[in-house]
Write a structure and sequence with these properties.
The chain is mainly alpha-helical. Helices cover 73% and strands 0% of the residues. The chain is globular and about 70 Å long. It is a multi-pass membrane protein.
């Protein structure tokens, strides 16, 4: 089940909200926990046991770590053991095939790989578990004694499958005692619908352009077509993932939770360093707090900082998928960020903002080629077409067709990827009061009706980050 499906919007969500609000406050976490298990069971019935076992292991593991804190060796042993279990489960399901295939390629062996479907959201809930165990071990938070509360934190359906990666330190008080208000509920509905529009109206239609271009023989793609294709994917992945985050934040608001923002208009960044402060914020802060800083961060000199950044960006790339294209994509950003930190950033701050944005967008757009290519060689071949390295035509009839038939969706998407629309809506609602509220409601209902119309005739279209 996905948020952008008719069964979720018209059946699962209304029933969950109804049961949630007629249930006494002290049992509402149980409602969220059961709803989350049912939500997960819809798409991954065989992996419910895996999710529940992970919850049980970390629940008891954290309590034991806390109780044995006086014995540092024992506490550390339990912490490391639980950590190894969490990471091993993730590694097995996500990288087992990748590892065997590389062993076969390097050693000439013919070890067979049994295809295993990736458990939905395993990367996200594993990171939540790891951060929880680390925070308990470091005495940043007390271990949760209420199993239902802890299970709710790990499995809450609005964060389970694609984040944002919520920290227990941020959510503990809200899990124990949160206030549901009409204002939060109304904002949650609006935020959910805006995210739905991003996914269904923009991202899904942009995906048609990109899929059309990348399915062509590379020798027949014109330079202009290659740029139209990858620009479409650049916009698609932003609206797909930020749309999911909006929907998750909105769903949380409907039940009284307040989650941190996960995107802050990353495509207006003036540098790659700034881009990664604005893109997938919860993941970036996770790697910073649990890998970069424990390794020493920038406290041990430039050489060690560069090494730490390389480790973080290698891990960031590998986290996104079991393919060398993702590793290359991660290191690609690592190298650029290292260059920026060494000297380039101070020059980027001095040039006009528009040139910084152009610089960032070219690097980001090229990066998405590696991200969505089957191999590094294919990625370089496509990039070669973009920059006229081959004998491909500059423009052809296909390019003209793509422009004429998709100009409106591309224009709307580019505008919506900037803060302009948000600022206009905020101005209307804050300055015009009642008329502004009416306009906001009308916009939300229009998005809802249009999205429903698309979903009636659309096949299953999961969010891109479900596979990570």
């Amino acid at each position: 089940m996905v948020f952008s499906s008719l069964i979720f919007i018209y059946i699962f969500l209304p029933m969950t909200l109804l049961i949630y609000y007629i249930t006494p406050k002290r049992f509402r976490n149980l409602v969220v926990f059961i709803a989350s298990i049912l939500f997960y069971a819809w798409g991954e019935p065989y992996y419910i046991a895996l999710l529940l076992i992970s919850v049980i292991v970390d629940y008891f593991g954290a309590i034991i770590v806390e109780k044995t804190r006086a014995d540092k060796d024992k506490s550390r042993f339990i912490f490391v053991t639980v950590l190894v279990i969490n990471i091993s489960v993730l590694f097995f399901f996500k990288y087992y095939g990748f590892l065997i295939n590389n062993i076969n390629a390097l050693c000439g062996t013919s070890l067979r790989v049994k295809a295993l479907p990736l458990p939905l959201g395993i990367s996200f809930y594993t990171f939540k578990l790891v951060s929880y165990m680390a925070d308990v071990y470091l005495n940043k938070v007390e271990a949760e004694r209420n199993f239902i509360n802890f299970g709710t934190y790990v499995s809450m359906f609005y964060q389970l499958t694609a984040g944002p990666i919520g920290r227990f330190t941020d959510l503990k008080n809200q899990i124990i005692n949160r206030n549901e208000t009409i204002e939060k509920f109304a904002y949650g509905i609006q935020r959910f619908l805006f995210g739905l529009g991003k996914k269904v109206i923009l991202a899904n239609n942009l995906s048609l352009i990109w899929n059309n271009v990348k399915s062509m023989q590379y020798g027949s793609i014109s330079v202009i077509s290659s740029w139209i294709g990858i620009i479409s994917f650049t916009l698609q992945i932003y609206f797909d993932f930020s749309g999911y985050s909006d929907m998750a934040i909105g769903l949380g608001q409907m039940m009284g939770f307040e989650f941190k923002e996960n995107f802050d208009f990353p495509y207006i960044s003036r540098s790659i360093t700034e881009f990664w402060r604005r893109w997938h914020i919860s993941l970036g802060s996770w790697f910073k707090d649990y890998i970069y800083i424990p390794l020493g961060g920038n406290r041990r000199g430039k050489s060690r900082q560069i090494f730490n950044l390389c480790v973080v960006w290698f891990a960031t790339g590998l986290w996104h998928g079991s393919n060398w294209t993702f590793v290359f994509w991660g290191l690609y950003y690592g190298v650029i960020i290292i260059i920026e930190k060494l000297f380039l950033l101070k020059y980027l701050k001095k040039i006009p903002k528009i040139f910084g944005i152009i610089y960032s967008m070219i690097i980001v757009t090229v990066g998405w080629v590696f991200f969505d290519s089957e191999s590094i060689n294919k990625a370089f071949s496509y990039i070669g077409i973009m920059f006229g390295a081959g004998n491909n035509l500059m423009i052809d009839n296909m390019a003209k067709y793509l422009i004429s038939s998709n100009l409106l969706i591309l224009f709307i998407s580019i505008i919506c990827a900037t803060p302009l629309v948000k600022r206009i809506i905020m101005y209307i609602t804050e300055k015009k009061k009642t008329p502004g509220i009416i306009v906001s409601v009308v916009i939300s209902m229009a998005i809802f009706v249009i999205s429903t119309a698309f979903l009636v005739y659309e096949s299953y279209s999961p969010f891109l980050y479900f596979k990570f």
